[in-house]
Amino acid sequence: MANLKITLVRSTNKSKKNQAATVKALGLHKIGQSVEKADNEAIRGMVRTVAHLVTCEEV
Known about the structure:
The chain is of the alpha+beta class. It has one domain (3-58): CATH 3.30.1390.20. 31% of the residues lie in helices and 27% in strands. The protein contains two helices and three strands. It has a three-stranded antiparallel β-sheet, with no helix packed on it. It is globular, with a radius of gyration of 10 Å. The N and C termini lie close together (10 Å). The relative contact order is 0.38. The model has no long low-confidence stretch (mean pLDDT 96).
């Protein structure tokens, strides 16, 4: 199973509360920080929620 590399590229300031919570739940805190998560439907849904704040690529 592949992994997803998720990178925070925009600030969560002035974003909706659920979007900021989703970014935090993904384990992202600072702009430019990246995490690798398993590629599954739950993670893809979280990325879709904050697609304007993060970039995502398969690893």
